[in-house]
């Protein structure tokens, strides 16, 4: 790496650069896995193995491996009560359900908007600039259509809309852990030259023959009554309390079917994006048979959404 690139990388991106000998696979694997585990508070471990760094892959051209890891743990500004969490069905697809731990509570003065196709809810985190945004289709199995039809302009309209209402929220506790090499995803978005001998990375290194061989991405999301823990790398009897007659009834937001979530800051920068499809829940009906299929659907939905946000090159 050139000194100029290293300086700018550390200054503007707060990143780190390590020069390693990929021929010593055991040492490289240990170094990468220790780094990921440290950044993610041991939520993500053993992301790579020795098989990812064989001598044949690295003996002809200098290569770069990019590693992305981020950790976030946030508490809701209005927590759910664990006493109100109940077992409920989560409707994954026609004829396929799973048992989920459904959290519920009435939340006062919450950012909320809606269309004929979906509901859009904001749940804020305590003492920080971040929020979870949930896109919930009105049709039980309509998430794919919502993602396909949602335009960037419409998304920004909902992200910036400041209408506050009372909302009865029912949503599942969920935990998602995923890790993959992002190169194929980026190629599908039109970014290709970085990963072959056509790459022009002379600004990074004095070696002319250099390319990016892997982009290791891992993510961990855990959402429960208290809030969200993330790494990359009561409703009962509430309706009857005293209220002035003209006050509108609370909105009902029941996330018992697949939905998309974003974690954003106040400037609407997106830090995490994912889909809860039902494959995340342990117990259920027809769960194990369809889990891999649902995970694939979830990943494809997120990739489709990412292409829409960042655009696809010709």
What would your notes on this structure say?
With 314 residues, this protein is an alpha+beta fold. It has helices spanning 3-13, 25-39, 55-58, 143-149, 152-160, 183-188, 287-310; strands at 62-68, 70-75, 86-93, 96-114, 118-124, 130-137, 164-172, 174-181, 210-223, 227-232, 251-254, 259-265, 270-276, 284-285. Strands 3, 4, 5, 6, 7, 11, 12, 13 and 14 form a nine-stranded mixed β-sheet that branches. Strands 1, 2, 8, 9 and 10 form a five-stranded mixed β-sheet that branches. A hairpin with a 5-residue loop joins strand 5 (118-124) and strand 6. The protein starts with a helix and ends with a helix. Residues 2-279 form the Serpin domain. Belongs to the serpin family. This is Serpin domain-containing protein. It holds the Pfam family Serpin.
Can you summarize the main beta sheet? 9 strands, mixed
- Terminal residue distance: 30 Å
Strand content: 35-45%
Q: Which ranges are low-confidence, i.e. pLDDT below 50, for 5 or more consecutive residues?
A: 234-245, 284-297
The SS-based structural class is alpha+beta
Counting DSSP E segments of at least 2 residues, the number of strands comes to 14
Question: What is the radius of gyration?
Answer: 22 Å
Which shape, going by the Cα principal axes?
elongated
Residues in helices, as a percent range: 10-25%
Q: What is the average of the pLDDT values?
A: 75
- The total of helices stands at 7
Question: In sequence order, what are the helices and strands, one letter per element?
Answer: HHHEEEEEEHHEEHEEEEEEH
């Amino acid at each position: 790496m050139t000194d100029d690139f290293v300086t700018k990388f550390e200054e503007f991106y707060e990143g780190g650069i390590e020069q390693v000998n990929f021929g010593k696979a055991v040492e490289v694997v240990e170094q990468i896995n220790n780094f990921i585990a440290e950044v993610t508070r041991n939520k993500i471990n053993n992301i790579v193995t020795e098989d990812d760094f064989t001598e044949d892959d690295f003996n002809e051209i200098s290569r770069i491996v990019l590693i992305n890891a981020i950790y976030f743990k946030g508490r809701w500004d209005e927590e759910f009560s664990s006493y109100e969490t109940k077992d409920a069905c989560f409707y994954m697809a026609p004829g396929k359900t799973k048992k989920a731990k459904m959290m519920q509570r009435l939340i006062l003065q919450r950012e909320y908007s809606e269309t004929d196709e979906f509901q859009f809810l904001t749940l804020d985190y305590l003492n920080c600039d971040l929020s979870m945004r949930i896109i919930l289709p009105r049709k039980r199995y309509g998430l794919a259509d919502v993602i396909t039809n949602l335009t960037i302009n419409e998304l920004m309209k909902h992200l910036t809309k400041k209408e506050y209402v009372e909302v009865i929220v029912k949503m599942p506790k969920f935990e998602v852990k995923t890790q993959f090499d992002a190169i194929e995803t980026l190629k599908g978005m039109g970014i290709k030259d970085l990963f072959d001998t056509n790459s022009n990375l002379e600004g990074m290194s004095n070696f002319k023959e250099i390319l990016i061989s892997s982009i290791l991405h891992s993510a961990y999301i855990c959402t429960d009554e208290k809030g969200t823990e993330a790494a990359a790398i009561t409703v009962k009897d509430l309706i009857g309390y005293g209220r002035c007659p003209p006050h509108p009834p609370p909105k009902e937001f029941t996330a018992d079917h697949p939905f998309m979530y974003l974690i954003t800051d106040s400037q609407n920068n997106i830090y995490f994006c994912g889909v809860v499809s039902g494959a995340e829940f342990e117990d259920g009906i027809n769960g194990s048979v369809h889990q891999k299929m649902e995970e694939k659907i979830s990943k494809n939905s997120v990739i489709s959404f990412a292409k829409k946000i960042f655009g696809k090159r010709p």
